[in-house]
Design goal:
2 copies of one chain form a homodimer. In chain A, 45% of the residues lie in helices and 10% in strands. Chain A has 648 residues and is of the alpha/beta class. Chain A has 2 domains: 380 residues, Aspartate Aminotransferase, domain 2 (3-Layer(aba) Sandwich), CATH 3.40.640; 150 residues, Aspartate Aminotransferase, domain 1, CATH 3.90.1150. A 7-stranded mixed beta sheet of chain A has the order 1-9-8-7-6-4-5, with helices on both faces. In chain A, strands 10-11-13-12 form a 4-stranded antiparallel beta sheet. Chain A has a two-stranded antiparallel ribbon with strand order 2-3. In chain A, helix 12 links the parallel strand 6 and strand 7. In chain A, helix 5 packs across helix 8 and helix 5 runs parallel beside helix 10.
């Protein structure tokens, strides 16, 4: 965790807006490439060459390579039609340049083509993947050496794996009871409130409210009492994963009478659409996603969460999991995870209601580095705030939430977001590595003699996976360690840039327009809208914002090279944003009724990822230029015809 | 589809075992890199440089870059501890070198970092992804312009998405009925046998046996009759995806009385372990995976499949899907998909039993290129066989199975397997693009005015996804088109190499050992075992094979550079392989009882991917060397102590 002792210069991290570091990048790229070339050449050099120089002069060989060159040139031209994420003129999408380390590490490893599905074919990169996972788990605050953390293709798969595990953990005590009954084994288990009883005597509601850790402990005790083989077989046979939802449900009904209403998943009302997708795919059902309103800072309302828990408890509806967002994709809002974790403890001890807690920190996870000193230890809020002064950041609430990540059962943290690594690099960290047994496709006891197994494909959702992604993230972590002196510096700059942008938008002279800003962001995404006396309806206003966005986005007829600045947009849908969106509507001069009728509010959105937004290094203040450009486009687009809509 | 007119020289496709093409690769790499560098530099050149030469001389900047260089050198050293997939001395794992086109295309695009989650931020690479998908769909034989095909992180996610869709299609007629009842709408629907009745009059068994296409047609007719809004809302509200398995089941029971036994998924008994994982995750349940025995060629036994269908039909157990393997991961066995497709038609017309048909062609999908002439049209078996003469390949059975891919509802085809593209590049192709509506997280009608939407994240399982992967595959398809003159050449060489290896193993003098070969492979994976009089038990024999494998695999104490040849291994588990494995046990001189007791047979396994195995280009015949090396290792390892086991 130690990392560099020097004060990091962020200019050394990226290729640079004008590829200022091209010489270094090229040197490292060639180093990696040639090192690989001569590894091939020196691997059994006695074999000689397979392809001779004479072969290479023949017509078919030359034609094939000409074709490759030609098509590559075509591709290179096409690629320039995309959004220039590398430029500080892009303050829009949640995409940016990757670190040189991550890109060079990725490329160097791609030449070897390792597949992390199984360590047998990727001994090196599987190790790097598990190292990276362990680093992220330490950053979150999970007890060292007991976590289970690995990379995924992205946040959706990471969140999917977490909820898959959560469901298995939720129903595990039922399987433990059925297994104990089959084996004729007495097994004490602690209820949510703490009292211990024989598992065979618990009713369904009590079983579905055994805490996640106690459920795993109980399964382990069963194995301890009965031996791995028979207890594992029975546990596995009676698991939801094995029986499937339909048979499991039938057996519940047969054994317990009415099997209670279906288990729900609690998410903030503004949660990413992938949560609905995940619940559909798992068979939990979109209707079982319970959306908790957000407050005016777009954070899950903890009081509303408490009320929902009470209501669910009173009608005995099990809660599979609660998902808390650490950095929403639209506003980078950070839920009060500390309060959610406390509420969870209270719900267990006072109401006998227990659930799995997952942090969707796909966007904000790396921000936890600001809570860690160079020694990897937690530092104080004051120390953190001193680093980012004079900005008023991090707020005590955000800092407390980041420190509470260690109190969750699992967290998604995507290196390809604020880890600035190339796609695909998501990650899922589980606090308790025993959850692996609940998803492993092969009985782990069969391999007990082989020590720690690293055939990832058998313990995680995905199979084949690029070892190159692991190496890229690993190398980036070497240069930017997971503490305030490494990634913390970079994340801090993005937060400073967002504050600077917020201020600039608030202070600019927009008349006759009026700029309506969402409340100051918890991390680094700024959302803003505009009102104008001529925009009579919210529908007209929304169409206007769409036009402004379109004018600052590349399209085939007006490619990136013709544009000066780039922004993104989003829609605050009334059914997701509720009162949090209503306040924006009111500030824009519309009514709550307008807001409901229009279905939501279109806003412009700037995810600040480029460090130059906070601190211009060259002669251009890109932030000031961005604001000027927005003002110009507002004028141009006020009465322009509607552009074709292209929602996010 | 046209592609090059010249006769492809495969030596031009890869970097080469001794990096013979290093000069060209380096030129293209630098071309891509510098083209990107100067794109950055020429993007608003008036901005000037952000990072000055003086900045770059400062200590923190220099230290950070020194650290990057140092750590990169460390990584480069570590990477050499892996398996040298690029070398023809590796005839083992299903991993190989990637094409230069795919690697350069990947790298060139990584510099731009596009994310294919949404076309707004990746207009170019999303288009390339959909182009690649359409090319694969055409190769499979799906009707042009009506498919829905895209890339995934790999085969597991592709197969998962297929089964997710299959389940939604299976239960769609039930939702159609419920929606028709709610809307008070008469809707004729065709039963499996063809007779049309009002959907509201069908019993559950009939509903669950409406064919996949008719189910989609009925949903479309409902929308046509009632308008998109209300019918879509009702259909969506009554869907399994929305209600979740538990509520759906309750409603089935309430409406139809006993809701029938749980739906099963039929797979060949040797199917990849990910199928069990997928059924666990979807909530279908591992117990609902019905394994159909394989014949002596390791192909799903179509008669056994027929019997299973009869049995399931007689007890009215619905079949969600049948999965057929086109190239198993262990033997590259190709199921008789043509016969399976015929059986499906017969089951519908004669027994009123309908199901979704998916081809897991993750490994073998690209082999369908051998059935296509340069014009993209299907060619004859004779024309294909003439290309690969004097080898007796493809067999009429394999050719017929590959031609039947177009008769499935979906197929997984992984470019990162026999497409020789870097990870991550799986692909899923659906025959009927209307299936998208069953998994989309947002009501498609809400966007009907916007024409074709390309926010992939809303229509597929995954979210963020590297645009670079799409560009890599796209560029590789330009150089190696999807017909007999492109990929067909390469796949053909791997099949020829496998046949040459099979013959060499059969003909070598092994005494006092005896080589037992699995039947000749359908594609390009050769499995083989050895018997010796001193190996009294099958357990001893299995341990011996493990030692032989370990001696031909890198470990930290004996890294790749100390090894001459590389092989992989697998275990023919008795519970999966049944009689197909028993024949191998008998040939080795053991009894059926020995086979059951040992739990299976360890065999060595060579996935032939390097074209040089078929046709040595240089002075070394790697195949002959491989066989000699195996013979030496057999002698060495006969009485060696057991190495630590490291299963696949």
């Amino acid at each position: 965790m130690a990392g560099p002792t020097f004060d990091l210069d962020l200019a050394s991290v990226f290729l640079g807006p004008k590829a200022e570091n091209a010489d270094i990048f090229e040197r490292l790229l060639l180093e990696a490439f040639r090192d690989h070339v001569f590894w091939r050449r020196n691997f059994h050099p006695e074999d000689g060459f397979s392809i001779s120089e004479i072969d290479r002069r023949r017509e078919p060989y030359q034609e094939s390579l000409s074709r490759l060159s030609q098509e590559l040139l075509g591709l290179l031209g096409e690629l320039k039609g995309g959004v220039p994420f590398f430029s500080p003129r892009h303050i829009g999408h949640m995409s940016s340049d990757s670190t040189m380390a991550a890109m060079v590490g990725y490329f160097a490893t791609m030449l070897y083509n390792p597949n992390n599905v199984s360590a047998e074919a990727s001994p090196v990169t599987t190790r790097l993947e598990l190292e990276v996972g362990a680093e992220l788990a330490r950053m979150l605050g999970y007890p060292e050496g007991r976590d289970w953390s690995h990379l995924t293709s992205g946040g959706t798969v990471a969140n999917f794996e977490a909820l898959w595990v959560a469901r298995n953990v939720k129903y595990l005590p039922v399987s433990v009871r059925w297994a104990a009954e089959e084996l004729g084994c007495e097994l004490p288990i602690a209820r949510a409130g703490g009292e211990r009883d024989d598992v065979r005597g618990l009713d369904l509601w009590a079983l579905l409210n055994v805490g996640p850790r106690e459920a795993l402990d109980a399964a382990e005790r069963l194995r301890g009492a009965m031996g791995q083989g028979p207890s594992h077989d029975a546990l596995s046979r009676w698991s939801l994963a094995s029986l499937g939802a339909q048979e499991f449900e039938r057996k519940l009904k047969a054994d317990f009478g009415d099997p209670l209403p279906p288990g729900v998943v609690l998410v903030p009302s503004t949660a990413h659409y992938s949560w609905e997708k995940i619940c559909r795919a798992l068979g939990i059902g979109a209707a079982q996603v319970r959306r908790i309103p957000v407050d005016r800072r777009f954070r899950m309302d903890v009081d509303a969460l408490g009320s929902a828990l009470c209501e669910l408890g009173s009608r005995r509806q099990p809660v599979i999991a609660c998902v808390s967002a650490i950095g929403t994709t639209e506003e980078s809002a950070v839920d009060r995870l500390d309060l959610v974790a406390e509420l969870r403890e209270r719900a267990a001890s006072e109401s006998g209601l227990s659930f799995y807690l997952h942090a969707d920190a796909a966007w904000g996870g790396y921000a936890a580095t600001i809570t860690r000193g160079r020694d990897g230890q937690r530092r104080t809020l004051e120390a953190a705030r001193a680093d980012y002064a004079p900005e008023d950041w991090p707020s005590p609430e955000v800092f407390a939430a980041l420190c509470a990540l260690g109190r969750t059962d699992s967290a998604t943290v995507d290196p390809h977001k604020l880890g600035f690594a190339p796609y695909p690099a998501g990650a899922i960290c589980f606090r308790d590595r025993r959850v692996r047994d609940l998803v492993a496709v092969e009985a782990p006891y069969a391999f007990a003699s082989e020590g720690e197994r690293t055939d990832l494909g058998r313990f995680i959702f995905e199979g084949s996976k690029p070892g190159a992604a692991a190496a890229g993230v690993w190398l980036s972590h070497r240069v930017l360690p997971l503490h305030a002196g490494g990634y913390g510096r970079l994340i801090g700059e993005t937060a400073r840039g967002a504050r600077r942008l917020h201020r600039a938008l608030a202070e600019a002279a927009w008349a006759p327009f009026r700029c309506v800003l969402l409340p100051e962001t918890d991390l680094n995404i700024v959302c803003f809208a505009f009102a104008h006396p001529k925009l009579g309806t919210l529908e007209e206003n929304n169409a206007f914002i769409q036009r402004v966005h379109a004018a600052m986005s590349p399209v085939p007829s007006r490619p990136a090279r013709h544009l000066d600045y780039f922004v993104s947009k989003t829609l605050l849908r009334a059914d997701e944003y509720g009162e949090a969106g209503e306040q924006v509507a009111l500030q824009l001069g519309y009514t709550a009724g307008d807001y409901r009728r229009a279905g939501g509010i279109a806003v412009l959105r700037s995810a600040v990822m480029n460090p130059e937004v906070a601190a211009p290094r060259g002669r251009v203040d890109f932030l000031a230029g961005f604001v000027r450009q927005v003002a110009e486009v507002l004028e141009q687009q006020l009465f322009a015809p509607d552009a074709a809509r292209h929602d996010r």
